[in-house]
Design a protein that fits this description.
- This protein is of the alpha/beta class and 279 residues long.
- It has five helices and 13 strands.
- The protein has a five-stranded mixed beta sheet with strand order 3-2-1-4-5, with helices on one face. The protein has a four-stranded mixed beta sheet with strand order 6-11-10-9. The chain has a four-stranded mixed beta sheet with strand order 7-8-12-13, with helices on one face.
- Strand 4, helix 2 and strand 5 form a beta-alpha-beta unit.
- About 3% of the residues have low confidence.
Length: 279
């Protein structure tokens, strides 16, 4: 993809799609990097969905790549063993993670416009989220006291700040990370976020930086603010009072309006630069 800088961090998915071919499910391997600088899609016959075939696809992709990967992220817990085995003999770090934002954007495009146009498409196989919130029985892990924020605030920033020529870029986010921004989002919208204020900002930001942070969510029913990491871990960040619960409802609504886009900033006080900023 022209004008997009390649990245050493790749993203991978291997799974069946909502399409039947000769009576069998279509299986695809999708590979991209965290900047979306290239996209590789290879179909696998359903009787050859195994770690050996997957490793072949990955090694071929690395062979042809402009920039070789040092890390490959994958988000599907159901495919954990197969992907892990495939990557174990490739010279990369395998990282189970939901921080596969470029891949998620691509999958969304394929689910919206590619698969429905294919012969053999089955809308009933194109299920949404596999984990409805009311069925979610996970218990978030409590943060160690030494890492707990002293104050939390729900805030918003103009989307323009994250676009080209905006004021937020890799030079001022501390140990944080920015995901790609979908350029079809309304330019005048506001991105919802959470600021965590703590005198231990550097320690908290460093700890969060060591997790695969995929986002924050407010559980309005349980009145909790939760951090999602890795493939399925959750950390309890704060309990919400009545006012915060109202602000959290607006936070979740704003996230929905922008396909889940939101940010988290960890800083010592209102005036200090972030020790870590994640989009």
């Amino acid at each position: 993809i022209p004008n997009v800088k390649p990245s050493e961090e790749w993203e991978l998915d291997c799974y069946s799609r909502p399409v039947m071919v000769n009576g069998k499910k279509l299986w695809e391997v999708l590979v991209t990097d965290s900047n979306g600088s290239f996209r590789l899609c290879e179909t696998l016959p359903s009787n050859r969905v195994n770690s050996r075939e997957l490793r072949r696809v990955i090694e071929d992709a690395i062979e042809q790549a402009e920039m070789k990967p040092n890390m490959v992220r994958f988000f599907r817990g159901a495919m954990f063993n197969m992907i892990n085995i495939a990557l174990s003999e490739v010279d990369v770090v395998a990282k189970p993670s939901r921080c596969t934002f470029a891949l998620a954007q691509w999958l969304e495009e394929r689910n919206r416009s590619i698969y429905p146009a294919m012969e053999g498409y089955r809308a009933t196989m194109a299920g949404g989220s596999s984990r409805a919130s009311f069925l979610d029985v996970r218990t978030p892990i409590k943060l160690p006291d030494a890492l707990r924020g002293e104050k939390y605030a729900f805030v918003a920033l103009p989307l323009a700040e994250f676009m080209e020529d905006g004021s937020i870029d890799v030079d001022n986010i501390g140990v944080g990370r920015l995901c790609p921004v979908d350029d079809t989002l309304p330019a005048d919208s506001f991105v919802q976020g959470i600021v965590i204020l703590t005198s231990r900002a550097v320690a908290l930001a460093s700890w969060i930086g060591g997790t695969e942070l995929s986002g924050f969510c407010a559980d309005l029913r349980k009145r909790t603010l939760v951090m999602d990491t890795d493939i399925e871990n959750q950390y309890l960040m704060a309990k919400l009072n009545d006012l915060q619960r109202e602000e959290a409802a607006a936070f979740e609504e704003g996230k929905d309006d922008l396909n889940g886009l939101h940010f988290v900033s960890v800083q010592e006080d209102d005036d200090s630069d972030p020790a870590g900023f994640w989009l």
